[in-house]
Write a structure and sequence with these properties.
Blueprint: E1 2-3, E2 13-21, E3 25-29, E4 33-47, E5 50-55, E6 59-62, E7 68-71, E8 76-83, E9 97-99, H1 105-118, E10 142-145, H2 149-164, E11 167-168, H3 178-190, H4 197-204, H5 208-219, H6 223-240, H7 245-251, H8 257-268, H9 272-281
Length: 282
């Protein structure tokens, strides 16, 4: 599992992707809610410790800070987007996940409206044509300016229409799943500081051993691995903005340049210098 840092914080631009033919994405976690809308085929989703299969016409809302990943058994076409809470505040209260199951007239109307907005040019973007018949490339991400009031209303109303037809599919809780959520929120505010597991446990009101156990069980990662992931993602952003390597290391919470190099290569598979060379070639 890894922390997808780009889907944290405040965002005034919505990004959504058409995943064509196949969509495999490792388990990850982020602060935004997420929608996966399967157009046709089938797609397996892992949410926390449960696996769900979606078929054409099914969709899934995933609440913020839930561990999730995707796998395509054979083939699928889907629309996937992570979106800020401002578009659908209700999504934060759904627990683990909410899934559309019923195929009734109201649900179809909601799906038709969503497709009109996101797949049929309602946002001024390309129409969905997986066979390439319209000659346009829809494999690249689409971006919607949410500071535009009309675009915000279009996107929000389409999401709300789907959400209104959802059926709750929350699993029964097998423990304190909120420990990971609370930790990630706290880490998002303090990861650049000289902190450790003991600091987090005290701040959140858990024992050190209990918090360590819950983190590992829910995410498959240790506290230090989560912390390092956040720091390296922040450092990559700073390096991309032209920040010097040492400054990026210190501003991201690393105590020494040596520890930064070691951790950066462990997580990204390259040194900071190699990363910058790759960025320059893009």
């Amino acid at each position: 599992m890894f922390v997808q840092k780009q889907n944290f914080g405040v965002n005034d631009t919505l990004q959504f992707n058409f995943q064509l033919g196949k969509y495999d994405y490792p388990t990850h976690i982020h602060q935004f809610a997420e929608l996966c809308y399967v157009i046709d085929g089938s797609l397996e989703l892992t949410v926390n410790d449960r696996v769900l299969t979606l078929c054409g016409g099914d969709y899934l809302f995933i609440a913020p800070l839930q561990v999730h990943g995707y796998y395509t058994p054979e083939r699928c076409n889907a629309v996937v987007m992570a979106f800020p809470e401002s578009l659908l505040p209700e999504c934060r209260s759904i627990g683990c996940y909410t899934r559309k199951c019923a195929r009734n007239p109201a649900a179809k109307a909601a799906s038709d409206y969503f497709e009109a907005i996101f797949m049929c040019g309602g946002l001024g973007t390309e129409r969905y044509a997986p066979d390439g018949s319209d000659g346009r490339d829809i494999s690249k991400p689409f971006f919607v300016d949410l500071t535009d009031a009309r675009q915000f209303m279009r996107v929000s109303s389409a999401l709300r229409a789907l959400f209104a037809e959802c059926e709750s599919s929350d699993r029964e809780s097998g423990g304190d799943d909120g420990a990971l959520t609370r930790l990630l929120v706290w880490l998002g505010e303090h990861f650049t500081e000289p902190i450790g597991l003991e600091n987090a446990a005290q701040a959140l009101g858990y024992s050190r051993n209990y918090l360590s156990h819950r983190i590992k069980k829910l995410s498959g990662m240790s506290f230090n691995e989560l912390l390092s992931s956040l720091r390296v993602d922040h450092a990559r952003k700073l390096l991309g903005q032209g920040t010097a390597v040492l400054d990026a290391a210190l501003d991201s919470g690393f105590g020494t340049e040596r520890s930064f190099y070691r951790t950066f290569k462990k997580i990204t598979g390259m040194t900071p210098g190699e990363y910058l060379k790759g960025k320059c070639k893009q």
